[in-house]
Structure formats: C-alpha cells, structure tokens
Design the sequence.
C-alpha cells in the first residue's frame, strides 16, 4: 500500500527536474507556444472530465458552494503566498514558482485517476492506475517545468499529501463511495481543470484553488440527493 503514490512523487520530481534543466535552453517564443499548447490540452481534459456526469447541475451547485467556502478560507491566496515565499527564498526571480506550484498541484490532484487509483491502492494494493497516472504526470511535469521552472517539483508534496491521505483512508470508506459519487467529483474536477486552462492561455485568471471544497461537496450531493439523476 502506498507504492503507487511513491512512484507518482518520484515521477514528478525526476521529470520536473529534467524539464527545469532543459527549459532554460529553449527559446522564449517556443516556451510561450508550448504553454499555449498545454493550455489547450488542459481545456480539453477539463471538458472530457465534465462529461463524465449526466447532470451538469451537480458540478454547478458544487462549484458555487465550494467557491463560497474557498473564498471564505482564502485557499487560493494561501497557496500563492506559500509559493511566493518559496520563490523569494530560493529563486533569483527567473522562475514563476507560485504559478507553477499552484497550477500543477491542482492539475495532478483533481482528476479521476487520483481518487480511483488511490482507493484501489489502499484497498487491494494494486497500484496499476497510479502507475499510469505517474507516467502521465511525468510527461506533464517535464513539459510544465520546461516552461514554468522548478516550482513544478513542489507539486510532488501535494501529490504525496492528497494521494497518501486517500490511500490511507481507503479502508474506512470502502462500501461508502459509489460510482455516482466518483463521477460527480470527476465532473466537478473537470470544471476546475478547465479554469486552469483559461489561466494558462491567459484568457482569464480563475481562482481555481478556492473551488477545491467543491470536490468534497459533489460526492456528498450525489450521495444525499436521490433527485439527482446518477
């Protein structure tokens, strides 16, 4: 138990490190175009995840309610302040640490493979889904780090915290989490991922981190409200 998360953390660190070393040698125009490509793919991933659930009202209500909670807790401001602190402490100004940390932390932790893979690892010890996620996150880390710098590697800590917690708690939620609850969380995560894509393309800056509580509200709505068509 936990091997899948360990593999994922190592993949983010190693590939993020390689991307950081390579990225400084790439022309600025190429890095800008690469970031645009990443933003477009991120939008498409968000749309695909959103379509996982039949009723769009579930993610809509979840995001609005989660945003109210997140704004009150100032989650986005806290994460960015932490990233800015690390940037000021360890960077010489050439690396947008805060943006890299927040963006990749959210991207690596709100997808369906995070929940499904961690639950399967915790319940059965099968880490095949997390191994697949590790490969995907590794490629993403390499690409993001080549554009945004070493701040991407900090998201390994977020992956460890989120996936480790789900894996450790898997036994206590066995038989409670349903397919409908997972699809609701996945669709809601798609909204957050789409918001990340808008920010990467510089179309609109969305405080996605403040929407994070929606990922807990969505499965609760799916479980507690039979009127939602699952």
Sequence:
């Amino acid at each position: 138990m936990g091997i899948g998360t360990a593999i994922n953390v190592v993949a983010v660190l190693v590939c993020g490190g390689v991307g950081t070393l390579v990225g400084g040698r790439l022309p600025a125009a190429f890095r800008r175009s690469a970031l645009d490509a990443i933003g477009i793919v991120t939008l498409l991933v968000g749309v695909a995840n959103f379509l996982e659930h039949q009723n769009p009202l579930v993610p809509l209500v979840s995001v609005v309610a989660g945003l109210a909670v997140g704004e009150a807790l100032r989650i986005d401001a806290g994460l960015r302040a932490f990233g800015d602190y690390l940037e000021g402490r360890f960077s010489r100004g050439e690396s947008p640490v805060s943006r890299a940390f927040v963006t990749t932390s959210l991207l690596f932790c709100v997808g369906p493979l995070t929940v499904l893979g961690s639950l399967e690892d915790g319940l059965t010890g099968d880490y095949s889904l997390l191994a697949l996620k590790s490969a995907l996150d590794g490629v993403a880390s390499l690409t993001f780090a080549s554009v945004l710098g070493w701040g991407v590697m900090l998201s390994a800590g977020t992956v460890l915290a989120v996936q480790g917690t789900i894996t450790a708690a898997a036994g206590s939620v066995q038989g409670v989490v349903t397919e409908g609850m997972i699809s609701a969380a996945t669709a809601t995560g798609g909204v957050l991922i789409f918001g990340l894509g808008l920010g990467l393309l510089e179309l609109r800056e969305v405080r996605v981190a403040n929407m994070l509580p929606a990922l807990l509200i969505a499965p609760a709505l799916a479980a507690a409200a039979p009127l939602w068509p699952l």
